[in-house]
Design a protein that fits this description.
By secondary structure, the chain is α/β, with parallel strands linked by helices. Helix content is 37%, strand content 18%. Helix 5 (161-171) crosses helix 7 and helix 7 packs across helix 9 (275-283).
Length: 290
């Protein structure tokens, strides 16, 4: 089996590389980062992918700068929507399965119970809008495969909440963190492991633009998350809860974006670790001062 990963330099892409390096699966991996395939050049996407002839394409690439997307909506749309349409076109031409990563930001956050894949989407900003457009382009293409929405992804790589909290926690005595936004943190390695498991399932080729949800189990606020990070690393920084109104951002965040992952668990026989358990495991690999 040959699997081509787009977005290899991102959090999930790097965790896929880490797991692939163990050689535990009979898979030939091809990893494309931005230097190897620039997704902003959409005319080059399908020809490049078709030339590689993968059996499965995992698209981890995305424009993820949520606040910058409010001013750079056109750029976000190219990566999160138009490029996805070209990737799906290539998958269809190859009869390959596509696994495309999407986001909890396709929801408005006012449902206040775990979102099912069938719940109404209503993104509140450009990032969510462009990611939803990418989902729809994949479904419209008729390509085989699935969409996996995830949430609050972190890892030892790149920019993310955990790395930011570790840095600030080592620099400051006190931090104010939003306490009225609820979601499920997801360790990128757990998501990567789930993607590998899915790629080896006979169910994948039977799907056509089917939407699933994956996050670590459980839910918390950003304040809870930050508190547990400080506690796990024994940082003396005190974390104080504040409402979202006291921390305005250019892009509106969902107040509640917990995902119901039952369909993925059932269809692919996946057990999700609890977010706190994964956080403690992940923090062992983080440098003291990221």
């Amino acid at each position: 089996m040959q699997i081509l990963v787009l977005g290899a330099a991102g959090q999930v892409g790097q965790e896929l590389q880490h797991l692939a390096s163990r050689g535990e699966h009979d898979i030939q991996w091809i990893f494309f980062d931005r230097q190897r395939l620039d997704l902003s050049d959409t005319s080059n996407i399908a020809p490049t992918l078709i030339k590689q002839k993968p059996d499965i394409i995992i698209n981890c690439a995305a424009y993820t700068a949520v606040d910058k997307a409010e001013q750079e909506g056109a750029t976000a749309d190219v990566i999160n929507h138009q490029a996805v349409a070209e990737i799906a076109r290539a998958a269809l031409a190859l009869d390959a399965s596509l696994i495309h990563i999407s986001t909890d930001y396709v929801f408005d956050g006012y449902h206040f119970q775990p979102y099912k894949t069938t719940d109404k989407t209503s993104p509140q900003g450009k990032y969510g809008e462009t990611k939803l457009a990418g989902e729809r382009a994949f479904i419209k293409s008729g390509a085989k495969g699935i969409i996996v929405r995830t949430s609050w992804v972190y890892s030892a790589y790149g920019n993310n909440f955990v790395r930011t909290m570790l840095r600030l926690g080592s620099e400051k005595d006190r931090l104010n963190v939003v306490a009225d936004q609820i979601g499920s943190p997801t360790w990128a390695r757990d998501l990567a492991a789930a993607l590998i498991h899915i790629s080896q399932s006979t169910q994948l080729a039977k799907k056509q633009g089917t939407i699933y949800h994956y996050s670590n189990a459980g839910a918390c606020s950003w304040y809870d998350f930050a508190f547990c990070i400080m506690e796990a690393r024994h940082l003396p920084c005190q974390v104080h809860p504040i409402p979202s109104e006291e921390f305005p951002t250019p892009a509106k965040r969902p107040h509640y974006s917990v995902l119901d992952c039952g369909e993925l668990e059932k269809d692919f026989c996946i057990q999700r670790p609890h977010w706190l358990s994964s956080l403690k495991t992940a923090l062992v690999e983080f440098m003291p001062s990221p």
